[in-house]
């Protein structure tokens, strides 16, 4: 029923300018961010449809209810103490129940603590953020000790961050059949009402729920006034009054001044990072941008890739401080994070020109998006880069030509290598960019940005793997295409050096570019194995400025 209501809401109530995200929480797996704020409703719909059809990280569960159901199955009774069980088992049941309830209370407090961080983070996203919560709630017996205060503070924080909760009881009217201390309606209604939202007791009444949520969220006035911004994180209450009688005002409770990045919680910092990495228009800041290339260079059981960027130290100098972090992320087609690496870099290493950062990854064949975030650890200022890559699959036989690493005349480059993850990659941690792409590094550097018009030649390191071919002989050829005109430009490719690494031929080739005019080009390369006539094609794009 929860899935049905959520899908109905997406299909009938959302507007093209809306953004939707999906969070879930479970006692065993904690908080999971399944989808960040996006206007791609089909993507959100797909995530919701997958709930219940496979293991979904972070899926909320009625832990205590399931525990007692399973226990009842084990003893073959309805779970009542003493029926069909000896005195020893009855005592064990009482001890287990007491222990289980203590664990449940701890889990309830953990839930409040985690969502308090989420609520604090929502402060920095402008406007109203309507939270539609599908849950069975926290059982009444857990509301003792510090939990009522935590729950009250959570409700206030949600209201202050302009995030009213519309709580839908996912258990439905059957929750009324539970004992009073096991019901969760009180916690849901309290969270909804105190945060400025509304509680819905019967999930079956789908149309009524959607109508009420739509009425509460779709009609509003926007009022604005100037404020003095101070970086102290303090809360300022806002009051709105109307003269017309009989009106009820639903308003933003207030606003928070921004606070220093060093005062962020770990959850706030993580959501800040995800906002930078995933959003086309991040809510926390307008980041600077820099170029990025991702190149597959070998394939065995999995694909080996190198991530490479030139850090424009002058352009992003406001980001570079005493210490920065460089975070590299890979996302699959469903925007799941399949790899995340983090490196801390001191200002000393970045206080020079021509700084390149690279890291290597080993991923399963498929299509990926890659993002690199550079973030100042004192101010939170960030710069981002992104690119896409297809990690190839190993063929049974034949050849694979990989995208080349292009090189331009440039001296005194400095290279920073990112950390390794995974056992196989850590075993190869000594591998450097020059091991993958051998080139005269004192005279040339990778082409990551635009090519300056008038450059006479490029060097290209070209890798080509062969499979089940004895004594392979590879011939290379290529041409340019001027993308705006479609004009094909032939050139004579000269191989300066050739070496072999296991089943991979590595060529250092020279490509003339002196005649290229301003514009965007694609470089097409073809590798042909002479004996088997196997061919492989690859292309990359670049700009001439």
From TrEMBL:
The organism of origin for this protein: Aerophobetes bacterium
Protein name per the record: VWA domain-containing protein
Highest taxon above the source species: Bacteria
InterPro entries for this protein: VWFA-rel_acidobac-type, vWFA_dom_sf
């Amino acid at each position: 029923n929860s899935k049905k209501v959520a899908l109905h809401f997406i299909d009938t109530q959302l507007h093209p300018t809306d953004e939707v995200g999906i969070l879930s929480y479970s006692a065993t797996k904690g908080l999971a961010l399944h989808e960040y704020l996006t206007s791609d409703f089909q993507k959100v719909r797909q995530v919701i449809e997958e709930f219940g059809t496979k293991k979904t990280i972070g899926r909320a569960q009625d832990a205590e209810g399931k525990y007692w159901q399973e226990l009842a199955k084990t003893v073959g009774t309805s779970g009542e103490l003493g029926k069909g069980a000896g005195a020893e088992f009855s005592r064990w049941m009482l001890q287990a129940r007491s222990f289980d309830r203590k664990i449940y209370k701890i889990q309830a407090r953990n839930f409040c603590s985690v969502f308090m961080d989420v609520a604090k983070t929502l402060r920095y996203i402008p406007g109203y953020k309507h939270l539609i919560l599908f849950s069975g709630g926290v059982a009444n017996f857990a509301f003792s000790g510090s939990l009522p205060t935590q729950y009250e503070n959570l409700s206030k924080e949600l209201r202050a961050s302009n995030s009213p909760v519309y709580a839908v009881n996912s258990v439905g009217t059957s929750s009324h059949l539970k004992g009073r201390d096991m019901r969760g309606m009180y916690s849901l209604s309290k969270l909804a009402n105190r945060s400025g939202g509304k509680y819905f007791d019967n999930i079956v009444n789908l149309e009524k729920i959607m109508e009420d949520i739509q009425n509460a969220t779709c009609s509003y006035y926007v009022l604005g006034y100037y404020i003095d911004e101070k970086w102290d994180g303090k809360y300022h209450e806002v009051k709105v009054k109307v003269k017309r009688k009989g009106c009820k005002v639903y308003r933003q409770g207030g606003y928070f001044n921004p606070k220093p990045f060093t005062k962020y919680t770990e959850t706030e910092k993580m959501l800040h990072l995800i906002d930078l990495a995933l959003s086309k228009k991040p809510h926390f800041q307008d980041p600077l941008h820099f170029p990025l290339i991702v190149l597959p260079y070998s394939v065995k059981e999995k694909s080996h890739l190198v991530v490479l960027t030139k850090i424009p130290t002058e352009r992003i100098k406001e980001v570079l401080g005493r210490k920065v972090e460089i975070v590299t992320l890979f996302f699959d087609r469903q925007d799941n994070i399949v790899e995340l690496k983090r490196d801390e870099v001191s200002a000393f290493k970045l206080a020079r020109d021509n700084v390149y950062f690279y890291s290597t990854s080993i991923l399963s064949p498929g299509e990926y998006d890659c993002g690199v975030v550079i973030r100042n650890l004192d101010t939170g200022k960030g710069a981002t880069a992104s690119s896409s890559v297809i990690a190839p699959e190993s063929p049974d036989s034949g050849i694979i030509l990989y995208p080349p690493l292009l090189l331009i005349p440039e001296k005194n480059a400095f290279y920073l290598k990112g950390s390794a993850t995974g056992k196989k990659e850590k075993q190869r941690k000594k591998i450097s960019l020059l091991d993958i792409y051998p080139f005269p590094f004192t005279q040339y550097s990778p082409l990551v940005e635009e090519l300056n018009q008038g450059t006479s030649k490029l060097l290209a390191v070209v890798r080509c793997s062969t499979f089940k071919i004895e004594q392979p002989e590879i011939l290379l050829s290529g041409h340019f295409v001027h993308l705006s005109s479609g004009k094909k430009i032939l050139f004579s490719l000269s191989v300066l050096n050739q070496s072999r690494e296991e089943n991979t031929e590595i060529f250092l080739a020279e490509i003339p570019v002196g005649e290229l005019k301003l514009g965007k080009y694609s470089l097409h390369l073809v590798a042909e194995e002479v004996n088997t006539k196997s061919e492989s094609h690859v292309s990359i794009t670049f700009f001439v400025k």
